[in-house]
């Protein structure tokens, strides 16, 4: 499942072509990919056709594109195209003359700001992902909705977020990420830290891979109760989460299976830097003991039994 670095790689790939592009045409090959668009496929096509895409914005694993609708320069309707990758969604940018991609569900043909035609193809093997148009609402803290790289200063959509993503906490790479707020949430949770790291209402963008990596780097057991972390340990954990997410963004994400690809259909390289995730039975890069995989919440937790011991509640 894509996490922050994979979604950021997709966002950064889409942004140059999609920013200030105009929607020419929409082809829906599988209506199931619009299941989150409440008003139905016909409304999706009618709303999006001729709209201008103003930016590509991300918070955690959520991507959205604020829209300027034709004939409404004031944007009384504050809408965005929201893309969920789910487990297996992919977003490719292709030329209209390129070969079709297998399992393409939706094709949006765009005219870029440089008057070139491109196809934004939404591919999804298992149809857990989706595209939808959603209303933008004000952020709770009055800060920017998410990360868009291009300057959002003075733009009407800057401090807005899709209503369906408003409950998602800020991610650790967000400039407005409030580490003290996250610390206070950790201090109130008796559940294991990995569970809290994956709770998108505590902080967003971290999934199974980067949680296992950050816990290995911090020498913490995945089931260590969150409220037992000392101030210093919590700070170490947050610093490792940030460091690992940044390093993975720089490598274009982790290609753990065939599902994740960048917008050109290429894989990321972070898997060569993994120390715990997917390393079952291989020697720990710190102590040499074998990495273990425990079943955990229908998935797995990878850890070093020697470096990452569960510490009893004091
Ligand atoms: Zn070890």
From TrEMBL:
Span of domain Formamidopyrimidine-DNA glycosylase catalytic: 2-129
Keyword Zinc-finger: yes
Pfam families for the chain: Fapy_DNA_glyco, H2TH, zf-FPG_IleRS
GO molecular function: 8-oxo-7,8-dihydroguanine DNA N-glycosylase activity; class I DNA-(apurinic or apyrimidinic site) endonuclease activity; damaged DNA binding; zinc ion binding
Catalyzed reactions: 2'-deoxyribonucleotide-(2'-deoxyribose 5'-phosphate)-2'-deoxyribonucleotide-DNA = a 3'-end 2'-deoxyribonucleotide-(2,3-dehydro-2,3-deoxyribose 5'-phosphate)-DNA + a 5'-end 5'-phospho-2'-deoxyribonucleoside-DNA + H(+); Hydrolysis of DNA containing ring-opened 7-methylguanine residues, releasing 2,6-diamino-4-hydroxy-5-(N-methyl)formamidopyrimidine
GO biological process, one term: base-excision repair
PANTHER family hit by this protein: FORMAMIDOPYRIMIDINE-DNA GLYCOSYLASE
Subunit description: Monomer.
Protein name: Unannotated protein
């Amino acid at each position: 499942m894509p996490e922050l670095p994979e979604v950021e790689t997709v966002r950064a790939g889409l942004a140059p072509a999609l920013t200030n592009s105009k929607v020419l045409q929409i082809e829906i090959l599988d209506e199931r990919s619009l299941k989150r668009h409440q008003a139905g496929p016909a409304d999706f096509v009618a709303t999006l056709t001729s709209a201008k895409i103003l930016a590509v914005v991300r918070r955690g694993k959520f991507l959205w594109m604020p829209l300027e609708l034709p004939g409404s320069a004031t944007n009384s309707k504050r809408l965005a195209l929201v893309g969920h990758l789910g487990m297996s969604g992919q977003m490719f940018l292709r030329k209209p003359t390129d070969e079709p991609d297998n399992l393409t569900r939706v094709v949006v043909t765009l005219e870029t700001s440089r008057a070139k035609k491109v196809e934004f193809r939404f591919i999804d093997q298992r149809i857990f992902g989706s595209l939808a148009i959603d209303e933008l609402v004000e952020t709770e803290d009055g800060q920017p909705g998410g990360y868009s790289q291009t300057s959002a200063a003075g733009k009407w959509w800057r401090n807005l977020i899709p209503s369906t993503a408003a409950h998602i906490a800020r991610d650790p790479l967000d400039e407005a990420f409030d580490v003290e707020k996250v610390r206070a949430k950790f201090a109130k949770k008796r559940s294991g830290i990995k569970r809290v790291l994956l709770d998108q209402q505590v902080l967003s963008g971290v999934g199974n891979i980067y949680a296992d990596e950050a816990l290995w780097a911090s020498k913490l057991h995945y089931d260590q109760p969150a409220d037992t972390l000392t101030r210093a340990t919590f700070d170490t954990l947050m610093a490792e989460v940030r460091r690992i997410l940044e390093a993975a963004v720089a490598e274009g994400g982790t290609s753990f299976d065939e599902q994740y690809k960048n917008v050109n259909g290429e894989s990321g390289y972070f898997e060569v830097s993994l120390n715990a995730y997917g390393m079952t039975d291989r020697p720990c890069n710190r102590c040499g003991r074998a990495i273990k995989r425990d079943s955990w919440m229908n998935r797995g937790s990878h850890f070093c039994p020697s470096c990452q011991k569960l510490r009893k509640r004091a």
